[in-house]
Amino acid sequence: MVSGVSGAGKTETVKIIMKHLATVQTSHPSFSHEKREMTNKSMEIEIVSKNNEDNARLKVVSKVLQSNPIFEAFGNAKTERNDNSSRFGRLTKLHFTIEKKENTTLGANKNELGLIGDNDGNKISTVPVCSLVGSSFEIFLLEKARVVSHSKNERTFHIFYQLLAAPSAFKENLFQAFGSATHDSFRYVGSTGSRIIEGMTDTEHFELTVSALKTFGIEGEELNTLMKALCIVLQLGNLTFEPDPSVDGEGALLVADDELEKVTTFMGIGQEEIKNAITTRLVKARGEEFVARLTPTQSRDSCDALAKEIYSQIVSVLVDKMNKRTHPAHFGRKADQVGASIAADEKDTGCISLLDLFGFETFDKNSFEQLCINYANEHLQNRYILDNFQSVKDDYEFEGIEIDIDCSTTNNSEVLNLVEGRMGLISIINEECVRPSGNSSSFVYKAKMIHKDSDHLVSEKLHRPWEFGVKHFADTVTYDATDFVERNTDQLPLDLLECVTKCTNSIISMQFDTLLTERQTLKQSTRRKQGAMSMTICSKFRKRLAGLIEHVAATKTRYVRCIKPNENKMPRVTDHIITMRQLDSAGIVTAINMSKNIFPNQLPYDIVWDRFQCLSKTDIDTQLEFKERVAILLPELFKDSERFVKGQYTAPYVCG
């Protein structure tokens, strides 16, 4: 589990760990020296091997490593604090299988290195090894809002800049008029002073992304379909809405210009259908249906919501395709040899998971996404506390040993209860989303009234009606809830969904068909209110986060803490105040203090006796219980009585 504040280096750390875990097996003696040398140079080499299993294994390694450029292109963006910031959470599962016993010579002592020679003089391992046979990916809370807006000094997702920096011939193949398009051609992108990310230009990154997509079989017409879907997202941002002077009251007019023509060409949907779907809504009330006209602002919001949803579905399609190509079920098999059920393949493999989740964030303006991100970090911090502090304290209490461990400074269970409890922030905002007149100011008012006695909900006199604060484990954050209800609902109207299902782009039409079916099923449900609340972003994120934490709890977790040395992205410069604040809030200081108060070794009494009785010069009665024997043995071995302590079942002690 890799954690840290935004810009601390989590993504790069995960890449280093992933590369190590994916390629370390190529150093196994079953690989020839020549093959290992080639593998270290590039993962895109054409692998030629007489050993089909080695061949398949190296292809898996290549695909695992090639997933990084794709995720960075579609999920990362430049922020004020980080040029390559992950704007989503990612769980990568690397699946390993153990070498068959008949292929090894267990227990052989013919060579100190654990190697023996075969008839041809090649060295063979005498110990079973784990082999990487596949991987799977899961993403969390993609920051869709970045598709349609970003701060002046930031950028939207990298893939848009890469596409615009692609060769003109490639862009013209997508759409003739797209060949000369630049950053300034699209409102969602806009001008930017950053053309180099991680030491590479956007053009170089585009070539890397296309090469990585090819590794997963996305090339040719399938690649064009993917890129055209991205073009649709960009073009939606250029649509213009004006007040309609031909109708009484409020109404929007979608300007019929070249930009609208491009959208209709890309989507394959008529102009009138698009106009009606974006500028009007079909409303049903008291058994009657009527068309409600939207204002220009509402129409713009509707168009932006469509662009965000299309991009989200594009990313979902990519993840699904990557999972299908790297799943353990495909190891050493052709596509037509993969069985219908792949659950058994996962069950028969061991798994090492890498979690790269967005770091704790606090900005001048903190919106709905920041609340979700910080909520996730609270859960990870709570897991860290349980694994490293509370478990040790519980063990010592079970043994009847007094230990001075204060977990109160790191315990964040009250914050979690504030957010996800029975009447927590999630429940309150979900209620506002299904209430006909629900709004963000009402959400903030209810939250402050219900939790007025909470030490972690901050209410200040200078707060505006839509502002509230939360005292997180890392810092106190003030949130602007202006659009919390809209962001949490995040559902396109049915008539707009129906329109988009007619799109000629196969990626968009198939995904929106699925969305439409889900919405129609929910609409027909007898428990519509509960169903609507379960479809909110908060509810879905809480459910997925609970599954993630359950997965983490079932594993042996290694924690990697990334510390950001300064706020200016300067090398070899450490701001000690910022660094110490991160160390303290992450629980590192508490962990160091705990290490002073606990014993590094803890063994059952029978093992202590078997291991150390040979050091005793005293004739200890072996008829005594192990605990009684050890009670005589330890004072003899440790002259200082503070170097050991006798528990109910174990004897913790420091190194002698």
UniProtKB/TrEMBL annotation:
> Which GO CC annotations does the UniProt entry carry?
cytoplasm; membrane; myosin complex
**UniProt KW Acetylation keyword:** no
Residues noted as binding ATP in the record, renumbered to the chain: 4-11
Report a single Gene Ontology molecular function: actin filament binding
The Gene Ontology biological process terms listed for this entry are:
actin filament organization
Q: Which UniProt keywords apply?
A: Actin-binding, ATP-binding, Motor protein, Myosin, Nucleotide-binding
- What range(s) does the Myosin motor domain occupy? 1-656
Q: Which domain of life is it from?
A: Eukaryota
Q: Which Pfam families match?
A: Myosin_head
Region (Actin-binding) residue spans: 545-567
Concerning InterPro entries, the annotation shows:
Kinesin_motor_dom_sf (IPR036961), Myosin_head_motor_dom-like (IPR001609), P-loop_NTPase (IPR027417)
Family per record: Belongs to the TRAFAC class myosin-kinesin ATPase superfamily. Myosin family.
Q: What is this protein called?
A: Myosin motor domain-containing protein
Q: Which organism is it from?
A: Ditylum brightwellii
> Taxonomic classification, please?
Eukaryota, Sar, Stramenopiles, Ochrophyta, Bacillariophyta
